[in-house]
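Reference record:
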Amino acid sequence: MTTAPVVIVGASMGGLRTAEALRRAGYSGPITIIGDEVHAPYNRPPLSKEVLSTEVTHEAVAFPARAATADVEWMLGRRVVSANLEAHTVTTADGAVVPYRALVVATGLRPRRLPVPPLAGRHAVRTLDDAMALRTELIPGARVVVVGSGFIGCEVAATAMKLGCAVTIVSPSAEPLIRPLGRMLGAELRRRHEASGIAFRMGRTVAALEGGSVLTGVVLDDGTSLDADVVIEALGSEANTEWLDGSGLDVSDGVLVDDAMRAIGADNTVRDDVFAVGDVARFPNRMFDAEPRRIEHWNIPTDTGKRAGAVLAAQLAGTADEPVSQSFTPMPAFWSIQLNVDLQAYGLPGLADSERVLEGDLAGDVIIGYYRRETLVGVVGLGMKAALVPYRRQIAGD
């Protein structure tokens, strides 16, 4: 198998960064990247923010090509449906069997969808094609119902409002963004959205969609009916791991890996020929504790891709112990733009058992600290980006 390529399944940010890291670490052998989209790797977060509010194109979000990966073989528009870890092969939906020397799982996530029949007007936002399809329907006067009040839901709602749509957010939560940001900041962000004209139906779920083949309305669980031309489903995500079912890997919530990004089997055996990166990887970060978690923040595909590439390159060169012995504690970071709100965050605020205002005023620019047993585990700023730096260092233990 020494002539077989390193196969990366997922033409994503994490997959691309892994390939780049392999080259940077000295691996000169063949690399094959297989992706189910026809597009070369691109940046996903802007799809629900500034890109959606303008012209949605691949050029607007594509990652620049780098010389180091110019010789990578790309198999785009090809979906991998299974893996045989003993034979060292993956199989695509069109029957191609691709051998590998080492396998990197970078298949990411897909949106959860409402359990209702398909009809025109339903959308989710995960891929470039999703954003392209949605953008054509976000016209002035369109009645838009966003189902879900997480980051994507609130960002898309804000973008639709900016484009002149009438927007309602429906969510079972008490406040928007309550799980990642807590009740205090969630309530403040709701206040700001409501001031812009966005309506909320909190504590509610969708019971049905109305219309024949074309959407006309949304029925809530209390019987209320909302007129709608567009429904945007922002109900969270599921890991794309079905193609690994029966492989012996722990895929109970993404792919379980150690902090070297090496996959772990259901029997707790570490595989040195299978890695996982990005949103699909569930790994321990001892900046916080030893609990493996999937972290869906924008920097994690880059950080885990760099880690996997360095470890795998050293392993293929016979010097694996050196990078593995180095600690891997990436700082989770994320950002959000919602109307006139520019939010920046570090750490894992969702781990907190308490939160407090550290600087500023909740109704204006503010920094919120998130504490677990009085230890700072996360910080969020509305504005005040420069003032976040000392708190970031405190979380990291610098």
Observations:
- The longest helix spans residues 178-196.
- The mean pLDDT is 95.
- The helical segments are 13-24, 58-61, 128-135, 151-162, 178-196, 300-316, 321-324, 389-396.
- The domain at 340-396 is CATH 3.30.390.30 (Enolase-like; domain 1).
